[in-house]
Amino acid sequence: MGYVLSTGGLCNFWQFMFNLMLEKQGSVFMGLQEFLILGGVLFALWLRYRFVRARAEHEENVRRENERLRGSHQRTVETSTKEQIDSGENYDAWEGSFGDATAPIEVSAHLQIDYTDGDGKSTTRSVKVKKFDEMLSGGMVIGFCELRRATRTFRIDRISECMDLETGESISSVRDFLINKFEASPERVIDTIELEFSDVLKILYFVAKADGQFKKEEANVIAEYLRKLVSDDRVNFKMVDKVLRSYDVPSLQSFKLAVGRVMKAQEIDTDLLIDCCKKIVDTQKTVHPAEKAALEYLVKRQAMSPVDRV
C-alpha cells in the first residue's frame, strides 16, 4: 500500500545521482539544478510515505481497540449471564416437556412450593397450576410461575414443602391434593359425561349441527339436560360448548349407531333425551330437513326398544 522506501533504496538512489553528476557534460550549475529537482521529488515521495504509514498505523490501532472493546463486552455478557445463573434470576434447570404426558388432567390450583431443581438450586415459588400428570417423571405439574413470570414444569418429587394459597392449608401430598382437587372440579364432571355418556353427546351434537350451525341457545339446552343427567348444577354453557366443539361432527351412520346403543342399553330416560333434542330444534323458527329426519329416527328407534324403559 502506497510507496515503501527502504534505507537501502535511498542509498542506491543517491549513488545513482552522484554517478550521473560525474558523467554529466556541462556546467556545475546544471548538475546542482538537477540535484535539487530530484531532491525535491525525493522529499515529496518521503512525505507520501510518512502519510501512508501514519494512516496504516492509525487503522491498525483502531482495529485493535475495536477488538479489545468486543472482547471486553463479551466478557461482561458472560459474567452477567453467569451471575444471573448463580443468583437464579430467570433461570431454571430443564425439567422436561409436559407434551410427553400420557394422561394429563386439567386442574386449577394456586400453590406455594419450596422447590429444588435438577441443578440443586432451591427456590420458593407461587405457581398457578394448569395441568397435572400422575405418571410423567413420577408426577409432574405445569403452571404459571409467578417468580419467573412464565410457564414452568415441576416434578412432584422435588417439592419439599407445599401450601394451598387459596386456603392457607399445608399440603403433605401434592399428588393426592391435585387428584382430589380434580375429582371435585367441574372438569371431572365433564370427563365423567364424556366417558359414560359419549353416545348421548354424539346424538345431541348431531341434532344441534344438523342445520350446519351450533348456537349458544342450543348449547344452553344441552347444558340444562346434562345437569339433570348427572345431577350436578356445575355443568354450564361454557363447559358444554368447549367439549362439543372439540369433537368432529358425527356422521349420519355414527348418529344412528349411537341411537341404537342408547335405546338398547336402557340406562337413561330416553323420553328426556328426545325432549332435549326437540328443544334444540325449537331454538330456531324453521326446522331443517336434517333435524326433522333426526327426530323422526329417534322416535322410531324408541318405539322399537323394550317397553320397560327407564
Q: Concise description?
A:
With 310 residues, this protein is an alpha+beta fold. It has 10 helices and 5 strands; from the N terminus they run ααβββββαααααααα.
Number of helices: 10
| Proportion of residues in extended strands | 5-15%
Task: Based on Cα principal axes, name the global outline.
Answer: elongated
* Spans where pLDDT lies below 50 across 5 or more residues: 1-7, 80-86
For the secondary structure, the number of strands is 5
Helix content: 55-70%
Using the CA coordinates, give the radius of gyration.
44 Å
Q: Decide which structural class fits the backbone.
A: alpha+beta
Helices and strands, in order, run as: HHEEEEEHHHHHHHH
Oligomeric state, counting identical vs distinct chains: single chain
The strand line-up of the biggest sheet is 4-3-2-1-5
Distance between the termini: 103 Å
- pLDDT averaged over residues: 80
Largest β-sheet summary? 5 strands, antiparallel
Provide an overview of this structure.
- This protein has 310 residues and is α+β, with helices and mostly antiparallel strands.
- Helix content is 57%, strand content 14%.
- The chain is built from ten helices and five strands, in the order H-H-E-E-E-E-E-H-H-H-H-H-H-H-H.
- The chain has helices spanning 7-23, 28-87, 174-183, 186-196, 198-209, 216-230, 237-245, 252-265, 270-282, 289-304; strands at residues 105-116, 122-133, 140-145, 150-155, 159-164.
- The chain has a five-stranded antiparallel β-sheet with strand order 4-3-2-1-5.
- The longest helix has 60 residues, at 28-87.
- The model is unreliable at 1-7 and 80-86 (pLDDT under 50).
